[in-house]
Amino acid sequence: MSDPAVDPEEVRHVADLARVDLADDEIERFTEQFVDILDAFEALDDVPETEREADLSNVMRPDETRESLSQEEALQNASDTEEGQFKGPKVS
Amino acid sequence: MTAQASEARELAAVIGLEVHVQLETETKIFCGCSTDVADAEPNTHTCPVCLGLPGALPVVNEGAVEAAVKVGKAIDADIPEETTFHRKNYYYPDLPKNFQITQYDSPICQDGKLEFSVEGERRSVDIRRAHLEEDPGSIKHVREGSGPLESRTCSIERADYTLIDYNRAGTPLMEIVTEPDFRAPGEVRSFLEKLEEVLEYLGVFDATRDGSLRIDANLSMVDAGEVDDAGDIDESVLEDANRTEVKNISSHKGAEQALSFEASRQRKLIQSGRAVEQETRHFNETHGNTVSMRSKEEEKDYRYFREADLPPLRVSHWKDEVPIPELPDARRERFVTEYGLSEEAASKLTSTKQVADFFEDVAERFDANLAATWVADNLLGELNYRDMAITDIDDRFDEVTRLVELVAEDEITAKNAHETVLREMLDTGDDPDTVVDREGLGKTSGDEVQQAVVDAIDENPDAVEDYHNGEDGAINFLVGQVMQKTGGSADPGDVNGLLREELES
Predict the structure, then answer these.
(1) Which residues from A are below 8 Å from B297, CB to CB?
(2) Which positions in chain A touch B65 (Cβ < 8 Å)?
(3) Chain B residues near residue A75 by CB distance under 8 angstroms
(4) Which domains does chain A have, with CATH numbers?
């Protein structure tokens, strides 16, 4: 691979997309780590092709209602709730 | 594009649509939660799949795929041999998984078209693709405070926090993408009306469901001279024109309004020598305008990749196996040939499936012409006048049928039936027999009419003389006299005949 796979700008952009706030030193560190991680994945290029399971297709279920979770169950992992709804910070 | 020559330029709008429709299924697209969430408490129709809990696996709802195939048949699209699902990645709280399962490079419907008419002219718009995806949840923007929640929901800019209900998350959606074939906002409206009509005929769509139709529209302006006689425009011209995408449109009327605003906004910019910025804009229904929206993501930012939890679908043969009902165009043509109706009447009667079904029911019992007059003219006319829809009275079809029966059996006059009984039925909610009794509209019996005819002749010797002198107006005067005596309940045609008989004897 010739180009550097990841530059700091790209890390910043991906962090923005993921709504993750990174400090400058974190961006630097992640940039290096991303390069290492992607390099490590290159090992997959050397994996030989092997036999595999036949592809599945048309895995469907009938249009029949199944019981849903109760409101309490649905909300049990939420850090904050209000009137039966998940509560989170404002969005832009 | 240079500004100098722009002043006298004639411009033409180029419009394409992305229409999102909710498919009417019992359950969500990837789980068994019910889609019947209209009056439900928030977050009572969820499960690990539609909440995006770790380890939960989606399984495609056969009913949603069947509905998509029906749509494909109706718009004459190809159903490819293999169709797959992708993950569209973006972070927003309405999306519990942080990605939306949708289709990307192999949508279930490709290369279709839809014909519709606009101001009496037939138009056809090409549909590039239609694909399946899941609806996100519903978000409320809320201000802090002590009042009830409803009073604190507000615009996104003024909000302090967000509340999310995932009942809607996972409702099957079909996104229908047209080619940029529209040349005017009015065409868009007619197209949407036709699309909704077809979807309702197919039984895959419920227009009364809140949020069942959402539209994104893109619009650009090109030199009118670039549009050839067939309405086509060269690809390169389209690519050069800056276009805006207008989001947040939720009705036919809204689409026409938003695009009219956007077309005139762009026209003004270009004619004053300024450039149209390529951007996403938000339609504000209250103000009828569009405002610029900071758009953060480009297509590549969605990092689409195959949804490995969903094997591909191979359902092209369903096109032959899944039946669809007679569609509005075919039905309209049949109404013309089978019942001898005019194009106009047939169009009105096939505008919705409910109207067409009701017409056929009445036509079968009585007479096609009578049924056409009553359903297409009288009923739809009076509903329209009251800003009502056929769905507002669909539990009273038997009452309307009874009214037509009263006319068919000569119990009341057509005029009274329409102008008094039907109107009162709609205004008061009473059934036809009640109105007839209350207003004393039962047709006067033959003897009474005969007596009134004799009386009218005795009391008006001058008119009788005029009649014998060949003055045709005299008979009308006498008919009027008889109608007055019978309180309008006699049939004017019959009275005319009886008078002539009596006068000639």
Answers:
(1) 17
(2) 60
(3) 43
(4) 8-46 (1.10.20)
Shortest distance between the Cα of B222 and any Cα of chain A, in A, equals 33
Those residues whose C-beta lies under 8 Å from the C-beta of residue B221, and which sit 6 or more positions away, are B11, B12, B13, B14, B241, B263, B266, B267, B270, B276
Six-digit token string for B458: 């005795």
The model's pLDDT over B328-369, given as tens digits with 9 standing for 90+, comes to 999 999 999 999 999 889 988 998 888 999 999 999 999 899
Strand B244-249 relative to strand B279-284: parallel, antiparallel, unpaired? parallel
Contact A16 B296 (CB under 8 A): yes
Query: Which residue stretches of A4-79 are H helix?
Result: 8-17, 24-41, 71-75
Correct CATH for B446-504 of 3.40.1440.10, 1.10.357.120, 1.10.10.410, 1.10.1040.10: 1.10.10.410
User: What is the ipTM score, two decimals?
Assistant: 0.87
pLDDT digits (tens, 9 = 90+) for B12-23: 999 999 999 999
Contact B151, B183 (CB under 8 A): no
CB contact under 8 Å between A63 and B62, yes or no, is: yes
On whether the CB atoms of residues A75 and B48 are closer than 8 A, the answer is no
A59: which chain B residues are within 8 Å (Cβ-Cβ)? 59-60, 310-311
Distance from CA of A15 to the nearest CA of B (A): 11
- Considering CB atoms only, which of B26, B93, B142 is closest to A65? B26
